[in-house]
Amino acid sequence: MRVLAAMSGGVDSAVAAARAVAAGHDVTGVHLALSAKPGTLRTGARGCCTVEDANDARRVADLLGIPFYVWDFAQRFDEDVVADFVAEYAAGRTPNPCLKCNERIKFAALLDKAVALGFDAVCTGHYARLSVVDGRAELRRSADDGKDQSYVLASLRPDQLRHAMFPLGGSVKADVRAEAASRGLAVADKPDSHDICFIPDGDTRAFLDRRLGQRPGELVDDETGEVLGAHTGVHGFTVGQRHGLGLRVPAPDGRPRYVLSLEPVSGAVRVGAAERLAVREIVAERPVWPSGDALAGEVDCVAQVRAHGGTAPAVASVVDDRLVVRLSGELRGVAPGQAVVLYRQDGAGDVVLGSAMIAATS
């Protein structure tokens, strides 16, 4: 097969490309330039897509003996990922930019260009597994539970999964680093990037303040309606947040308060006790079915609401084109704007049934 290997400059994509070459595929490496100012997006383990990362990817490609290119997707990334991220926070929701990047950049913009150029598959360093059942691709959790990325890939359509390749799905991270070292790849010990790649200092609130300006509002006790403080914008908060609230009135029982909900129109940030975060039902919009099969009736599954953690047994169904998920146990800190991903457990590993964007909880 002709394979286009997306090479970020990190160890995972480097080993994924090396495995594709070792498997006998005709591999070409490509680094995506996602920042208009690539010199500003890496500080130690933070950020990605810098000139440094492009050079690291090029050195790996040279060692593997494969062609290598840098493709400029900065404008598309800013429009489809960064602008979406800002708009979602302004609307009182909490987006996942990694999920959006996979959906709109790596497996839309990149994949479309790859197919147009005659490539059969796009290879990435994601930790997820693909299997083929009755001629259809199924997305599964990876062998490394701690690194599993099936959650942020769960919005991919069947036609996109048919052209995807995840060589690391059956491996654990320690073995991937060891393999990189044995292959003589200089990135073997390179730190993983953390947090949001386009916010290298990790200060999301300051980034959003620069984009949105200050939008003053009040911090309100959800139970009594008492005003407990002021803030400069609902975009500085997310459901489940405990620290950095700026409350001027302590709780009568001395226990911490958490963000329960955000009201972007009125500017109110409602706070309360931890138990008021408990969620037993999720309603989500725009469901996607990676295998091509929508849910039929009520289906027992496991629901996940965060990239790492936040899982509970559930019964899910589709009602009026919305996904309704009734949890067997409660989850806390479930934020509108995040994805809920459904898994079916079987002997070969958890299979992704579908995903949707959380619109409401109760």
From TrEMBL:
This is tRNA-specific 2-thiouridylase MnmA. Its EC number is 2.8.1.13. Residues 280-358 form the tRNA-specific 2-thiouridylase MnmA-like C-terminal domain. The active site is at 101 (nucleophile), 197 (cysteine persulfide intermediate). GO terms for biological process: tRNA wobble position uridine thiolation. Keywords: ATP-binding, Cytoplasm, Disulfide bond, Nucleotide-binding, RNA-binding, Transferase, tRNA processing, tRNA-binding. It catalyses: S-sulfanyl-L-cysteinyl-[protein] + uridine(34) in tRNA + AH2 + ATP = 2-thiouridine(34) in tRNA + L-cysteinyl-[protein] + A + AMP + diphosphate + H(+). One of its GO terms (molecular function) is ATP binding. It holds the Pfam family tRNA_Me_trans_C. It is found in: Cytoplasm. SUPFAM superfamilies: Adenine nucleotide alpha hydrolases-like. The keyword tRNA-binding applies. Catalyzes the 2-thiolation of uridine at the wobble position (U34) of tRNA, leading to the formation of s(2)U34. HAMAP family: tRNA_thiouridyl_MnmA. InterPro entries: MnmA-like, MnmA-like_C, MnmA-like_central, MnmA-like_central_sf, Rossmann-like_a/b/a_fold. One of its GO terms (cellular component) is cytoplasm. Residues 206-272 form the tRNA-specific 2-thiouridylase MnmA-like central domain. Residues 147-149 are annotated as: Interaction with tRNA. It is an enzyme of class 2 (transferase). The record marks 126, 338 as: Interaction with tRNA. ATP binds at residues 6-13, 32, 125.
